[in-house]
Amino acid sequence: MGKLKDSSSIVWSWSLLLMISNVGLLVKAKSTIEPCANSDSCNALLGYTLYTDLKVSEVGSLFNVDPVSILTANAIDISYPDVENHILPSQLFVKIPISCSCVDGIRKSVSTHYKTRPSDTLSSIASQIYSGLVSADQLREANAIQDPDVLDVGVSLIVPLPCTCFNGTDNLLPAVYLSYVVRDVDTLAGIAATYRTTLTDLMNVNAMGSPAIKAEDIIAVPLPACASKFPRYASDNGMIVPNGSYAITASHCVQCSCGPGNLNLYCMPASLAVSCSSMQCRNSNLMLGNVTMQQSSAGCNVTTCSYGGFVNGTIITSLSTSLQPRCPGPQQFPPLLAPPSSVSRDKMFAPAPAPQSDGAGTTIPKTSVVPSTGSLPGLSPASGPSGSASGASGASGASSLVNSLATFPTAFTLYLFVKFMMSISL
Ligand SMILES: *[C@@H]1O[C@H](CO)[C@@H](O)[C@H](O)[C@H]1NC(C)=O
Ligand SMILES: *[C@@H]1O[C@H](CO)[C@@H](O)[C@H](O)[C@H]1NC(C)=O
Ligand SMILES: *[C@@H]1O[C@H](CO)[C@@H](O)[C@H](O)[C@H]1NC(C)=O
Ligand SMILES: *[C@@H]1O[C@H](CO)[C@@H](O)[C@H](O)[C@H]1NC(C)=O
Ligand SMILES: *[C@@H]1O[C@H](CO)[C@@H](O)[C@H](O)[C@H]1NC(C)=O
Questions:
Q1: Could you tell me whether strands 218-227 and 156-158 are parallel, antiparallel, or unpaired per DSSP bridges?
Q2: How far is residue 175 CA from its own chain's centroid?
Q3: Which of 330, 168, 160, 141 is CA-nearest to residue 239?
């Protein structure tokens, strides 16, 4: 993979830009560009910093993505009442899961549109609303705007966003790429530490000759992930879930998680939607995600009912049996975080800790049934207008599922989360 990237990525050369700037042109931020040939797409992430307080659903519409997928990508507990109307605080850093396509020979995401409002300018849309993920020039070009000073109100602008696929691998291991906008306090080594990768790897991925970075550069950061093996004809073919997070699929019927113990995708019923096709494996009484084990002299006979993709509205299940040397322990889940409500300033310039570095993982008893009270001890879920119905249906449906996952010390993980967010947001 390294080779492929080195030869195929074109990255603005910083020294060249310096020379250009010396002769009086504006210095442009650099960004990793991945050439592509076919029309396939992949899952990718955008690192986004909120420019103001926004509801989860508003962040979703800003990027044209399912709000629930934003929450699961950030391992945020979706069982909170009316969680789609939860207000996320200004300056919070979140990962936005997007589909990365191939447009005019390069990777980018083009499904995002922005409707202009009074007082918007191309540069305010670029640097504030989309937190530097797009530039004013790119907006002007993508929308063929003649005079950037005259921006009509209510116009729908295409917002091209940077993303990379690199074949879903990094050093031959499954990976999802995060498009990260460099802040002036960042160093490449710091970013590498935050995302548990190496300086060399980041330099290879981004085809950099030196570790020098500059505010507003956009770099591709590989995140280790769990890859699915769903067939081509499955609508969620190619699904890949970063370590420490979740994804929701099959019309909100199936929830898949990755990590912390291993990088095998683990899927189970999500009970987000009311009407889901059967999630029981044929010729067995096992449900999606169920595992039975039988210790014998030869080893451990493990039978698993696993998820095989979403095909024509049907949840594909498959039963498999394997003989393993040892019986696996109970399934572990990435810790869930409470919907964040504040971004504390004093931690902002603390040294970047590795995200979610407790490493403990949380074992969730499969049989536990936790009543969906929607509120966890010690935390007051900040909910939006309670009468608002729009986001509520998905959220309330989500309750039963995630509450059963929410059996770890929430306050502690919230602390880690805020600490983590601090380390990477402004
Ligand atoms: C992409 O990765 C897959 C394994 O995930 C591998 O089989 C394939 O050869 C890779 N393709 C390229 C072009 O490197
Ligand atoms: C393992 O378990 C399955 C299902 O319980 C059974 O059909 C199979 O014969 C067992 N295999 C061995 C080697 O025990
Ligand atoms: C799914 O639907 C398409 C057309 O809607 C059909 O051609 C295909 O055979 C279906 N596949 C399965 C597995 O039912
Ligand atoms: C996945 O995340 C867990 C916990 O954050 C960590 O302990 C583990 O090393 C990670 N695995 C990989 C392959 O990065
Ligand atoms: C099988 O999975 C279902 C759905 O996740 C769960 O409710 C049930 O407790 C599991 N059964 C066993 C025996 O693990």
A1: unpaired
A2: 12
A3: 168
H or E element, residue 10: strand 10-11
55 contact partners, CB below 8 Å, separation of at least 6: 84, 85, 86, 87, 88, 384, 391
- pLDDT above 70 for 206: yes
| This prediction's pTM | 0.77
Residue in 243, 358, 413 to alter for ligand 4 test, most ligand atoms within 8 A of Cβ: 243
Residues linked to residue 317 through DSSP beta bridges, in sequence order: 307
Q: Is 260 in the pocket of ligand 4 (CB under 6 A)?
A: yes
- Ligand minimally distant from the alpha carbon of residue 227: 1
SS (H, E, C) 114-158: EECCCCCCHHHHHHHHCCCCCCHHHHHHHCCCCCCCCCCCCCEEE
* AA letter at 361: G
- Mark residue 283 as left, alpha or beta (left: phi above 0; alpha: psi -120 to 50; beta: remaining): left
* Predicted local distance difference test score (pLDDT) of residue 222: 98
User: What is the pLDDT confidence band of residue 25, given thresholds at 50, 70 and 90?
Assistant: very low
Q: Could you tell me the two tokens for 405? A: 């996952």
Measured in degrees and rounded to the nearest 5, phi and psi for residue 247 equal -145, 155
Indicate whether residue 167 lines ligand 1 (CB < 6 A). yes
Q: Which ligand is nearest to the CA of 312?
A: 3
